[in-house]
Amino acid sequence: MEESVLEVRDITKQFPGVLANDHVNLQLHKGEILALLGENGAGKSTLMNIVYGLYHPDSGEIYLNGECVTVSSPRDAIARGVGMVHQHFQLVEPMTVTENIILGSEVMRNAVLLNIDAARQQVDDLSREYGLEVDPDAIIEDLPVGVQQRVEIIKALYRHAKILILDEPTAVLTPQEIEDLFRVMRRLVEQGHSIIFITHKLKEVLAVAHRIVVMRNGGVVGEALPAESTEGSLASMMVGREVILKVPKGAAHPGEPVLDVSSLEVTDARGTKVVNNVSFQVRAGEILGVAGVQGNGQTELVEALTGLTRIGGGRITLGGQDLSGGTPRAFTEQGSGHIPENRHRYGMVAPYPISENLVLNQYYKAPFARGWGIRDYPAIDKHAQRLVELFDVRTPGVSTAGGSLSGGNQQKMVVARELGRQLSLLVAAQPTRGVDVGSIEFIHSQIVKQRDAGVAVLLVSAELDEIMALSDRIIVMYKGAIIGEVNAAEATREQLGLLMAGVHPTA
Amino acid sequence: METPQTTQKKPLFAPIWKTLRMPLLALLAALVVGAVVMVISGDNPLVAYWGLLQGAFGSLEAISRTIRKAIPFIFTGLSVAFAFKAGLFNIGASGQFLMGTICAAAVGVNFEGLPWIIHMPLAILAGILGGALWGGIAGWLKVWKGAHEVISTIMLNYIASLFVSWTVYAGGTQGQQPGPLSDPVAAARAISQTRDVFESARIPPLLPQVFDRVHWGILLAIAVAVLIWWILQKTTLGFEIRTVGENPHAAQYAGIRVGRTMMLSMAIAGGLAGLAGAVETLGLNYKFAPEFTGSVGFEGITIALLGQTHPLGVVLASFLMGSLYGGASKMQFDSGVPGEIIQVVQALVLAFVAAPAIIHEIQRLIFRNRQSAGEEDTPTVHIAPEGGLGGTK
């Protein structure tokens, strides 16, 4: 039998209203990459935070190298050889790589002075040993996300972690960076480390894992080997029913241009051009996908196209109307719908009931308001009843606070509000972020339905699969500019991945 | 269990106990701690609190006093509560109150011969505008200059305080000019105050054969509270204000002009505090003198929090605070406990209301047999709204 370096037995963790972990059992073998697969809210992160000492279980035991232990804090976990790389990096941005790595366990020359040279040497050795190329003197904020992640991994190795927990490590990476990460992971396990890889992406699991454990509703629902699994079989295990991974979609019948963007520029607070000379058109009845690694100007592009940010130059024409510099309301009035990438920030008012959230940007119009700005609550409720039913928002009622819904249902509420009225343009930014597979399926089919009804759709997503599944044409953004356009039917992941990484297609 | 029904967030009279529990517990806790302070200093809290109760409700005269104290509290409480709804912390009710006072007085001591039906409303309107201007300046500074309203309203309080003192300044012996509103007769005796406002500018007494110096301001205050509730809950303007307060980004997304709404909210909040000043001047004092100012503006903060920022909660909290202040002197007389203890109790109420965690703990201890000690959405108020003063990540 294989040697087990980590074992959790019968772990239960109750949060108010949620049983996050329900008698979970899990084993990690030495030298193994174990994928922990599950939807948002399945309990993966809770379980790992328990192992890392951030939460304490209500019951159950943790065994490290066969010994029953109580992990009281992350410091304790690190001392026992468990390291975790969180989804949101814990780095001090203005400091160097070396400084970040030694932070908290500094190498001292004497009682007062740091021995930064010795530290730099150690960092350099580690990065060479595991193929984690990084300049020890670089400032964190100047580094690409993929390299920042390497710094996080070195940080754990520097503290002698033998077990590494990687929480959704690929969410922020380009396809090429993901390949690099997988290479590093394989090298680490070859040298005797063990890795738990938390994800909800099926392709990656099949590519890198030695063994797969699937969680659902706080419990482990099954175990699988990559060789014996398909994306479909894993998806059904995750969701608990058959799912359609690719929405059926017929050919597009593009009509007249609806949105015309020419030489658009957006400048951020620091004076950097974050959207640089961007021009494109979206026609009625087509889905234009905007691909790109997060942080390459897509957010600002969407904000410019919805009136949320000031534009620095260029023209935005919607349905023949010049809306350059228009307010959000001007865009809405012109028939534009917007599914914002951050629903908590822009898309909803969490304490408001669903009914109010569903009229968030139409509250002032008939029938929701009568003359003199007096609101008509019965009309607002009736509207909400209809949309909740139409868009399958699972809720006890329309007066339930929007913020108390699950992530998927919150997103369906936002989608319902935007698609529930007559649109000419739909701007959908990360429309399925943080949403369960079942809701993804539903939201995708709704977007395609809008296209088929003649709406021009601009889809911005960091998920390449989503872009490829829905788009008719794809443009790729890199450093604020459009680096290339491809026909979705002919596009390959490799081709898009290169564009996303800033490599120009050479003829 | 949900039936399709009207979804107003806070119906006028609905979950009364749920809403009242938290402030009542805060009051109770404050009274208990206040009693401990009295015991430590060798006084008998039971005698003191009995005196307090007598002084607040023991006679028609006492009740009148409580009502008189409550009137300006309602307006300044509404002022702070209204700003809270827009996510703004109006520390400036005190300065806005003073501006309202002086503007109402200025109209009241001028325009002799105007009929009552014009003069009195005109003076009230002047008070509202004075306060609204002062609140609006803070709103403008926030929206266009990025000055946090807490800082700017504190500064504006100083300016208002010095400004009104100057307007009634009696003049000095070395030839200093008296202020423009100074009463020459009083100034001759070196007293700084305005003349009495004309009869035609006064708010008439309410049932003078029953109450002592209670005026129609109390009915106006309750009517304004209902109006504010109605605006917040039933109009699109109220929706805009609440949305800006709950989530300014979502408000922007919804097409609401966030800056304009914030400025308008501060102006309305200022107008309410100014109205407090106008009503005090025209209904009770009939003139302005710097010593009348009291701390009505600052009480507004306590009252808004105690009233859970709900307009009707503000009315109840105002009566409560009014009774504490009204009963204080009788308490001192009966028990020898200094009236300042009331300020201690009031400070404790504020501390407990502002620190809901403590009250939740008390609540849990008292009610643990009745319900599971789980999450409960007692409305809490964000003391440092949006951006805040503290370091949030």
Give an overview in words.
The complex is a heterodimer of chains A (507) and B (393). In chain A, helix 14 (407-419) packs parallel to helix 15 (437-452). The mean pLDDT of chain A is 90. Chain A starts with a strand and ends in a 7-residue tail after the last helix. Chain A has a six-stranded mixed β-sheet with strand order 6-7-8-3-9-10, sandwiched between helices. Chain A folds into two domains: 4-239, Rossmann fold, CATH 3.40.50; 257-500, Rossmann fold, CATH 3.40.50. Chain A has helices at residues 44-51, 74-79, 97-102, 116-129, 145-158, 175-190, 202-208, 231-239, 298-305, 328-333, 343-347, 354-357, 377-390, 407-419, 437-452, 464-470, 493-500, and strands at residues 4-15, 18-29, 33-37, 59-64, 67-69, 82-85, 163-167, 194-199, 211-216, 219-224, 257-267, 273-283, 287-291, 313-318, 321-322, 336-339, 369-370, 374-375, 425-429, 456-460, 473-478, 481-487. The longest helix of chain A is centred in the middle third of the chain and has 16 residues, at 175-190. Chain A is an alpha/beta fold and 507 residues long. Chain A is globular and about 70 Å long. With 393 residues, chain B is an all-alpha fold. Chain B has a domain at 70-310. In chain B, 66% of the residues lie in helices and 0% in strands. The longest helix of chain B has 30 residues, at 116-145. Chain B is globular, with a radius of gyration of 22 Å. The two termini of chain B are 39 Å apart.
